[in-house]
Each structure stands twice: as structure tokens, then as C-alpha cells.
Amino acid sequence: MALRSASLPLLLLNLLSLYTSCVSSSSDSITTNQSLSGDQKITSKGGNFVLGFFTIVNTSSNFYVGIWYNKISEFTPVWLANRATPISDPARSVFHISQDGNLVLLNQANSLIWSTNSTTSKYSSTVAVLLDNGNLVLRDGGNSSKVFWQSFENPTDTLLPGGKIAYDKVTGVGQKLIAWKDSENPSPGSFSFEMDPQGASQYLLQWKGSQTYWRTGLWDGRMFTGIPEMNGMTSNHDYNLTYFETDKEKYVAYFVQASNIISRVIMDVSGQLKMLTWVEINQQWTQFWFEPKAQCQVIALCGPFGICNEHSSSYCSCLKGFRQKSPKDWDLSDHSGGCVRNTKLQCGGNTTSLQANVEKDEFFQMSIVRLPDNGQNIQSTESSSKDDCELACLTNCSCTAYSYGSSICTIWYGDLLNLQDQYTGSDGGTLYIRLAASELPSHRKNGHITWLVAAAGVAGFLVCVVVVWILVVWRRRMRRRQPISTAELPVMGGLVVFNYSELQRVTKNFSDKLGAGGFGTVFKGVLLDSTAVAVKRLEGLRQGEKQFRAEVSTLGTIQHVNLISLRGFCAEGDDKRLLVFDYMPNGSLDSHLFHNDSSKVLDWSARYQIALGIARGLAYLHEKCRECIIHCDIKPENILLDAAFNPIVADFGLAKLLGREFSHVLTTMRGTIGYLAPEWISGLAITPKADVYSFGMMLLEIISGKRNTKQAETGDYYFPVKAAMQVTEGVVDCLLDERLNGDADMEEVNRACRVACWCIQDMDSERPTMGMVVQVLEGLLEVNVPPIPKLLHDLGVYSHGESIHFELSA
């Protein structure tokens, strides 16, 4: 937007002030004879939004004119006029309608800071009105339908319900949401959200307006193909997602039907697009949905020479030998400046014989990283060896890193962007970072050792061999007498690498069996420090050794309070692959739900917290891991309980370890068929929504304390059918485990029953995400009455309090 120079001299402005008045705070509009200055403001007619001057930080001298929420406790701006050009003295600045009918902001020096720059009607009839949906509209005072400009068509970083991010089909220019530079600076940052500038009906997240790092997928008439979970919005009673297209523009807008829901979509400083909902009971914004799910997918998130790690709370850090360029910016979540070297490169590879005393640069090896993808700085050539590749980098002072693999030498010049640690994707590998020699201890050996020193070394070596042989013999004898200590074992990626023979001793030759399933048998073991562990002996794996170790190493980095902790593993051939976990003293959930001992019945509070914990663990697997992990076998037998009865999701890594054969194993496992989503059986692609279905089925069992197939006097009936019918009728007390004698929070029971029935909908697009399930169980989101799944309806009908029984097929 081009700014005009001020059209009114200071004297004329002062004369005009004789004929203008300040706006009343109860007013919702600014007319041609009114203005805003200082702490004056206008409020929308329903009181939802306020327009006026404000500062982001109380101690700052930067002031802005903008719109913010009026009815919530947390100050939240949704639109700013002068986001890139703050003023310093709001008391002497003026926000009013100029002679040409535009809404303008003049600072204390009478300089034009911002203008609507629209073609308006004559001066006397223009009015600016703040609507109750947060839209500031400049329109004809005599004809409200004649709109010259509106903030909804000129957003900053926020999209409000009813607003739009449109693509102009005539000009080929689209509107954008642009993130703040940092958490305290609203000036435009590097990340933006807009409709595809090529004209396709999809939205893109972009870095610096040029590089796309996430897309919604095309609009198919109901939803965006890249985010199927948004399909629920198109049919949700509270939210409505609608596509609009005319000869001039096209866009998708979302609306909120319920007046008590406060919602917004923002382009966040993190580079993620987020949908937030205000939760009054907690007095805070709650994240409802976000993309991309992997934070490290955001381009250049950590800046030059920064490295991203999905398993770190701060995500960004600096490479070895580098420090933050601007710690203040990093504290404000702006990592775009990246990192700078602690020590300048010596470029010793270019020194002559007269400069032999200058230390050459060295290289720091980083394994399992995503290689930089700033493509214009990459030079790939065939090389005979890694040493040749290193030399090629070392002899060029502009080279900052190299990698070598499959006889290909890749060299980077200048800044390194988009590095990611602990990465096992196809574009990952080992990177050698060039550093000044002083940053690393030298690993090079002196080649001019005298023969006398060499002889002494050989003698010392022979002595060491004898000593080591004696120690090995002694240690072997001792090991036969006692369990091992994990401190004695090698470590890979934070995991202990056990020997098969050592795990035999730990488990007393696999004698203390805890349980068995379709993937192997679990045994109890005790380490030297008396720590109890569970050792699972896997069966049926056909992976190569290298792939198995890589997958296990990845799983070992996943940490969540509701996911089983992997301590280590053994990999000595197909028949000697074992996983070592923490031991859970209270066993599996099924042993506490489906038993006849009334003294061990889980009360409702414990059941609800177990369900919530399981949901949180699955949401982490689906949405927080570097790569989405689908569990594929959610059932009570795979939920363990620790000493405090906290739920621990087990076997979550078997989908990755077993690969393509997993679906075949599942469908042949006895007892698991009752938790399989319809897409498993129909052969459709499996998504995280398959876990959602299984969770819903299991949640019904947690509520009822019975298997979903319950024996009745007259035959078998399918409990989920009864549950779906009862939820539809609004009567759920009969679904509660009768052993609880009605002692339960019925609001929680109703909430759990509703979300369970949403989870078991036939189509995966109609099911919520696990993140949404967590928010429902936490009471942060309201959940409507779900429809009866067609597959369940076809199995049986529930009417007038009686069930129609049927025989279940094998």
C-alpha cells in the first residue's frame, strides 16, 4: 500500500479541529467531524470489539491504531492499521476521515502514517463503523450497502469468523495473513498464508512470499483434500466452512454459529497457521487446530546455522561452534537471524608453505540430520572418496559444509538453512560442518614418530593386551553370577544396546512370562540396580538390521508421560530381536475392566483420567512427532497402568517396526477385530483416524466395564449399537458400568459417550482428531449429539427401550 504525503498543513489541521469533536467511547463509528486521539476509542454496538490506540508492551514507546477484543481478559489485537510504522505520541496523533473521504492516521508531526487509499464518495457522507464481528467498514453515510473499504479485506495476521483471504481473479493478486516479526513486534514477518497465486483453489503457507512449505490441498466441494479433519467443520453445528467464487474472486470463509464461541485463525510467529478458541473458564486461548503439525517443517524456522529438533521444547538451537546472533530476538520467538560463528574460519586449506604454521579448519560430524536444502548453494559431483570431498570443501574458503554418500560429494556454500536434528527421512544423512580448528580438538596424529617411541608403544600395547585378556576372562566369570548393569552396555541414540545372552540372564532365561500377543511374548526382568523391566521378544519381523536399528532409535527419542518408555533393544538376527521397556506394576487395562472382583473396580474418576491420558498419548503420536505415527492396534490389552494407575500406551512403535505386514497380522489377531475401523476391512488407505475409531470403541468399554460384545440372556447384542442409540436419545446413565452404582459425574459420562460415538463414525472424515478428543474430554470444547453410524445401524435397531438381538459372525 503506497502512502500519500500529508495533504493538510498543520495550520489548517488546527483550524479544522474547531469544527470536529472527539468520539464518545460508547460510539461505534467515526464521522467526518470526529477523530480519535490518545486514549479515545470506539466500541462495536454489541460490545465485542474496540478500536483505538494501544501499545504491545507497556514499557514501549511504539503505539498502534487497531482493533482488539473487548469481552475477554487477555488483551488480543486482531487488526492493526500501522503495524509496520508505529507512532510515538498518540495524544498528538489523529485517526480520522480526511477531506478525500479516506480514513487516515496522522502522527504528531502531521505526517501521513497510514491511509485506506480507497476511492470514496464526497467528504460529507463518509463514515467509518466498527461492526460487532470485528470488521471496520468505511462506507457511504447515507447508503450502508455502499462500502469503500473494510478491514476484513485488508487483514494483518488474524482471520475472524466471516472474514476472508481471497484471490482476485482479475488482478491475480491475493490477500494475505502475515505473521508478526516476533511476539512483541507486529511488523510483517517472514511467514504468510494466502490462496495459491497460480489460481488453484488451495491455500499455501509461504516463507518470504516465495517458498511454500505447506498447502491445504485443493478444495473438492466439501473440504480441502490436504486436511480431511476440517470436513467436520462443514457439518458442525458450531462451525461452518464455505467456499465462495464469483467472476472477480474466490475464497473460503469460516463462520461460527454459536454466539458464545470466540474463535480466530492466526498466522503465528512460529510459522504455523493456528485456529484458537477462547476458554472462559481457564481465561486463555486454546489451540483448536494447527498446520503444519511438525514445527520443523517450517522453512528457515531457526535461521542460518540454526538447527531444529522436534523433541526440544524450544525447537531451535545453534550448531556446534555457533551462537545466537540476537539472543533478544530468540527470547521473543524470532529465530530468523539464526546463528553466527564463535570463531572465524582460518581457511587453512589455501595457505602456502610460508604459512604452514596456520591451523587448517576442521569438520564437525553430525549424524542423522536433515541436510540443508538451500538449493542454490549446493554443488554435487562424483567423487572417488570422502577424503576428496573434504579436500574440495577445505580448499574453498566459501565452503561451509559437505556430505558424502553413494560416491556423491555434496558441498554447501554460505548459510546453512533448514537443518533438523534426529531426522530419519529420505533426505537425511551425515553432514560435516566446517569450523575453525580451535573449536574442535585435533584428531590428527603426528606422522613423524620416532622409531624409539614406536617401539615403546608396541611394548606398551603388548602389556595392555595381556591385561585386557585377564580382565575379560575374569569379567565373563563374574557375569555368569549376577545380572547386568545398563551402565556397562553400549548406547545408541540414547538407547541401551543389550546382548541376547544378557537379556536371558535378566529374565532368568525368559521364565517369568507377563503376557503374549500377535507380535510376541513379554517377560519380566530385573536389572542389576533392582529396576524391573519388561522384555518383549518380537516375532515375524522381516526388516534388515540397519532399518530395524534406525526405526528403534527413532522410537527411543519419543517421550510422553502417556507413552511407554523404551529403555533399549537387542538386534542379533531375525529370531533375536527384543525391546526393553519400563515395567508397569498394575498390568494392562483389560485386567481391571473385565473382571468379577468388585474390590478392584476402577471408579469413574480413574476411568475418565485413564481415557484422557490415552487420548493425550495418541494426540502426541499423531500431531507432535516428527513423522505421524499411527498405532494401529488400540485396545485395552495395549494400555498399561503404572503404580499410580496412569495410563501408558504400549506397542505404539510396532506399526513402524512391522511395516506392510502389519495390517495382515492385525486382521488375523483374535480379539482385535472389534476395534478395527471400517477402512481396514474395506482395504482403503489407513490414516490416524483409524486409531480414533479404535479409541472410540475402547472408550465405550471403559464406560461400561464390559466387552463391546456382551452376552445377554437371549443371545448376543452389539453394545456400540445400544450406546449410539442411547446417546441420540440423550439417556446415557444406563450405559455406565452397573458396578459403579451410578456414582459418576454424569456430565463427564455424557461427554465421554458423545465423543466415543463421534469417534466410531463410518467415514474417517467425520471423526474428530485425537487433539479434538483431548479438548472435548478436558471440557474445552462442546460436543454435539452425533449421528448413528450407518454400519452400526445396519447391525441392529434399538427402539422403545428394547434391543433387537442378532448373531455375531465369527
Automatic annotation (TrEMBL):
E.C. no: 2.7.11.1
GO biological processes: recognition of pollen; response to other organism
Subcellular location field? Cell membrane
Annotated Protein kinase domain ranges read 508-781
Write down the InterPro entries for this protein, in alphabetical order: Bulb-type_lectin_dom, Bulb-type_lectin_dom_sf, Kinase-like_dom_sf, Pan_app, Prot_kinase_dom, Protein_kinase_ATP_BS, S_locus_glycoprot_dom, Ser/Thr_kinase_AS
Q: Which residues form the Apple domain?
A: 347-436
What is catalyzed by this enzyme? L-threonyl-[protein] + ATP = O-phospho-L-threonyl-[protein] + ADP + H(+); L-seryl-[protein] + ATP = O-phospho-L-seryl-[protein] + ADP + H(+)
Q: Which domain of life is it from?
A: Eukaryota
Query: By what name is this protein known?
Result: Receptor-like serine/threonine-protein kinase
Q: What is the lineage of its organism?
A: Eukaryota, Viridiplantae, Streptophyta, Embryophyta, Tracheophyta
